[in-house]
Design goal:
The protein is of the alpha/beta class. It is built from eleven helices and 17 strands. The protein has two domains: 209 residues, Medium-chain alcohol dehydrogenases, catalytic domain (Quinone Oxidoreductase, Chain A, domain 1, Alpha-Beta Complex), CATH 3.90.180; 131 residues, NAD(P)-binding Rossmann-like Domain (Rossmann fold). The strands form four sheets. Strands 3, 4, 5, 8, 9, 16 and 17 form a seven-stranded mixed β-sheet that branches. A six-stranded parallel β-sheet has the order 12-11-10-13-14-15, covered by helices on one side. A two-stranded antiparallel ribbon has the order 1-2. Strand 1 and strand 2 form a beta hairpin. Bound molecules: NADP nicotinamide-adenine-dinucleotide phosphate (NAP) and zinc ion (2 copies). One zinc ion binds next to loops. Its cofactor is Zn(2+).
Length: 351
């Protein structure tokens, strides 16, 4: 066991602050990582505030982790000290069910172990995430990070990246398709970049007039202000695929109506409350409404390699650890451009 400092929420209504954590020494299959950067996902905020009603306190969020390997267990073959690595939303799963065997650990039939707020499968307690100086993770859940990319801007790929890459790949988004991305936050801006890289005609839907120019710069061919009813009406029935990355309550039927016959809307945003769906929006054009959860470990590695080849990273705003509450408040106002990343060198030395 070794001690390290993290930043935790101790209750849904408490500000995050420093906490002393015990991390296990690396077991045979484990990799110990010095965390350099950790992205700030809206899921961190949902969990810290217990908006999904399953948070175990104290909660140390953070599942967009990039750092360097400092120690490895004796059976570790894939990593060595000094290597640049990443950890995303999962640190374990059953590894035996059909989903795990197919590389879809996120859909593990007994449930994957989350990087934070997850119950360790070996009885070692509740997991603590990347808002900390170090983490120890089984090598099977550690990713290789291309050295040529900016490591701080890679961190958000570990969740926002894979969560948008995976459904765009699964539904085979590509040339000849008109694709909508809803919400220009952490996930949405990666969705725009990937949909463009895959060759689709990309339309961004945003509630923020201030993000139009950025939407075009990030790769959208067109930007529609979703609060403008006339602009929305012009888009009805024109889309093959829409990815909805909105974190709050909104009218999902307004987007279902934009799909063509047999078009698909995939929900990745996870608002606290249910989103009412009008069945008429679905049955009139045999439309599909689906969801998608992050991505498996093999696909996450594929995504990182793709980003390495194509020079794709997140657009980030670096923050100090003690600025996390301000970052959360700005995220709630949709004031994100387009992912906050914590510089872990700013973590206090002691709790
Ligand atoms: P984020 O950076 O806060 O971005 C969310 C964006 O949604 C905002 O920037 C805003 O974009 C738009 N938005 C916010 N409030 C809205 C409202 N009332 N109506 C319409 N649009 C609104 O959040 P994120 O980190 O990208 O996460 C987005 C959601 O995905 C969260 O719920 C998160 O928990 C979830 N998530 C799911 C998965 C998964 O596996 N499925 C993985 C990670 C995260 P505009 O300003 O452009 O309108
Ligand atoms: Zn996330
Ligand atoms: Zn499994």
């Amino acid at each position: 066991m070794f001690s390290c400092v993290g930043y935790a929420a101790t209750a849904a209504d408490a500000s995050l602050g420093p906490i002393a954590l015990d991390r296990r020494d690396p077991g045979p299959e484990d990799v110990q990582i010095d965390i350099m950067y950790c992205g700030v996902c809206h899921s961190d905020l949902h969990q810290a505030r217990n908006e999904w009603h399953n948070t175990i306190f104290p909660c140390v969020p953070g599942h967009e982790i990039v750092g360097r390997v400092t120690r490895v267990g004796p059976s570790v073959t894939r990593f060595r000290a000094g290597e640049l690595v990443g950890v995303g939303c999962m640190v374990d799963s059953c590894r035996e069910c059909s989903s795990c065997r197919a590389g879809f650990e996120q859909y593990c039939e007994v449930g994957f172990v989350g990087t934070y707020n997850g119950e360790d499968r070996q009885g070692r307690g509740i997991t603590f995430g990347g808002y900390s100086r170090a983490i120890v993770v089984d090598q099977a859940f550690v990713l290789k990070v291309p050295e040529k990319l900016d490591p701080a801007a890679v961190a958000p790929l570990l969740c926002a990246g894979i969560t948008t890459y995976s459904p765009l790949r699964h539904w085979k988004v590509g040339p000849g398709q008109r694709v909508g991305i809803v919400g220009l936050g952490g996930l949405g801006h990666m969705g725009v970049k990937f949909a463009r890289a895959f060759g689709a005609e990309v339309v961004l839907f945003t509630t923020s007039a201030s993000k139009v120019a950025d939407g075009l710069r990030l790769g959208a061919h067109e930007v529609v202000l979703s609060k403008d009813p006339e602009a929305m009406a012009k888009e009805r029935g024109r889309f093959d695929f829409i990815l909805d990355a909105v974190a709050a309550d909104h009218d999902i039927n307004a987007y279902l109506d934009l799909l063509r016959r047999d078009g698909t809307l995939v929900q990745v945003g996870a608002p606290e409350n249910p989103l009412p769906v009008s069945v008429f929006s679905l049955l009139m054009k045999r439309r599909n409404f689906s969801g998608s959860l992050i991505g498996g470990i093999p696909e996450t590695q594929e995504m990182l390699d793709f980003c390495g080849e194509h020079g794709i990273t997140a657009d980030i705003e670096m923050i100090r650890m003690d600025e996390i509450e301000t970052a959360y408040a700005r995220m709630l106002r949709s004031d994100v451009k387009y992912r906050f990343v914590i510089d872990m060198a700013t973590m206090p030395e002691t709790a």
